[in-house]
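Narrative of activities, Objective 1.

The group set out to show that a structural description can be obtained from nothing but a protein's sequence at a throughput compatible with the screening campaign. Below is one input-output pair from the validation batch, recorded exactly as produced.
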Amino acid sequence: MQKEKIFEQLTKQIDKCRTCRLCKTRNKAVPGEGNLKAEVVFIGEGPGYNEDLQGRPFVGRAGDLLEGLLRIIGARRNDIWIGNVVKCRPPENRNPMVDEIRSCKPYLIEQLRIINPKLIIPLGRFAFEHFFPAGKISRDHGKAFRIGERIVLPLYHPAAALRSEAVLQQLKNDFRKIPRLLHSDSEEIIAVTRHPKDENQMLLI
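Output recorded for this entry:
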């Protein structure tokens, strides 16, 4: 079955999902969107107010900023794929709970498997810690980690950059590393040995 058909079926499952409490408060699920052949995927924490209304990830001011950052490296939104750790908006934008993350985890695993990107970019503290529980976005942003054949590059969330000029400048600087990481075997990439019992890093297989 073609990649597009498989992804379409998965998206329909997400739209109808009722495996956790978030289905009771959401307006629309936000499965994610973009190029299924993308070398780069961006993963945020979860949908916000505008995303919940439209059923699309990273819309509004944060989405506008992300598109502006993509233009810096000569890319467009339809060149990449964008998703979230959880597919439905937590009430009042609170952090997702453990069981909510667990419910959404199979969807993210399957999406990454289908797309098979070279570079995964967690946006913000929560998304980064989902992949690397011991990670700290303030310390590790802009550092590239290799797990198997994939590279993980944690960046500040665009929403944080909207609140701080210093964070915005750092985000721009880190963003400029993306083309180099895609097209060279850079010595700056930190190799990570995946422990077989580390369920979070298993997401990257």
